[in-house]
């Protein structure tokens, strides 16, 4: 029987496989409660995204607009909680599925009613910035998350936003993603890459996990800089995102990430990745 896609063992190092947008396999729809609960029951690492809605809470969605991922239209920030709960998610083919949009409190209530495996970790990836976090939004976040905070890690690209939410939510771990659009155009030399990771670690001193585009990690490696090693030296863990398609070229890149001792790999196809690596090792 094929093992559940939870981790990869490679040369004495265990690397977690993170279920990106709560997908176990490439054909899965995003953010379905069935897959989230399955991941948490198995002890997997799983990620969902957070976007602020009109009633100063959070929707479990990636996009700031509703049109692509749901049966709604318009901006999430202009849509009420009641309306969001009536919308259906769309599958990979764009067709509506049976699952509706969840709000953060819905997800947290679900997790509270279905206790997670001790090793499970749910990443809440905040997709916006500090300007969206009014006192009411922060209070609503804390009210929703506090009862299950020990099973979660909050991440985002705005370290101040992450810190503000975490400060109101005791027991919640945090992570930081310093990757930005066009980063590889700005980083060319060894000194550039070294300065980049040093700044990231300084910017988010409380972040337990540093989230880095896998292409950034490999570009730094080619330039002679070990970003993962630098993070490890500062007692941080590193997640490499996102492995989307499982091809021979991509598998070679994944194996290099494993050689570099990456702590976690984010992928849209956890099952496919684990199977391909196992077949390659056979």
UniProtKB/TrEMBL annotation:
Name by which UniProt lists this protein: Glycerophosphodiester phosphodiesterase
Database matches in InterPro entries: GP_PDE_dom, PLC-like_Pdiesterase_TIM-brl
Coiled coil: none
PANTHER family in the cross-refs: GLYCEROPHOSPHODIESTER PHOSPHODIESTERASE, CYTOPLASMIC (PTHR46211:SF1), GLYCEROPHOSPHORYL DIESTER PHOSPHODIESTERASE (PTHR46211)
SUPFAM superfamilies given in the database record: PLC-like phosphodiesterases
Domain GP-PDE: from-to ranges: 15-277
Highest taxon of the lineage: Bacteria
């Amino acid at each position: 029987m094929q093992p559940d896609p939870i981790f990869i063992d490679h040369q004495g190092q265990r690397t977690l496989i993170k279920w990106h947008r709560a997908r176990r396999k490439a054909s899965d729809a995003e953010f379905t409660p069935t897959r989230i609960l399955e991941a948490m029951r198995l002890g997997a690492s799983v990620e969902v995204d957070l976007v602020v809605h009109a009633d100063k809470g959070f929707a479990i969605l990636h996009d700031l607009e509703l049109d692509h991922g749901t049966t709604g239209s318009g901006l999430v920030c202009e849509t009420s909680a009641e309306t969001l709960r009536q919308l259906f998610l769309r599958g990979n083919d764009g067709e509506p599925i049976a699952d509706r949009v969840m709000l953060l409190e819905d997800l947290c209530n679900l997790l509270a009613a279905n206790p997670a495996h001790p090793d499970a970790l749910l990443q809440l990836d905040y997709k916006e910035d500090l300007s969206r976090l009014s006192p009411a939004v922060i209070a609503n976040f804390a009210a929703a998350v506090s009862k299950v905070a020990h099973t979660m890690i909050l991440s985002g690209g705005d370290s101040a936003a992450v810190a503000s939410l975490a400060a109101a939510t005791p027991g919640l771990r945090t992570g930081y993603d310093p990757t930005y659009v066009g980063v590889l155009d700005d980083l060319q030399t060894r000194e550039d890459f070294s300065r980049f990771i040093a700044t990231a670690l300084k910017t988010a001193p409380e972040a337990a996990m540093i989230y880095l585009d896998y292409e950034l990690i490999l570009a730094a490696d080619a330039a002679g800089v070990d970003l993962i090693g630098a993070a490890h030296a500062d007692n941080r863990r590193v997640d490499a995102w996102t492995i989307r398609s499982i091809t021979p070229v991509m598998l070679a890149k994944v194996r290099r990430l494993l050689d570099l001792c990456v702590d976690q790999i984010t992928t849209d196809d956890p099952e496919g990745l684990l199977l391909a690596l196992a077949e390659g090792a056979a």
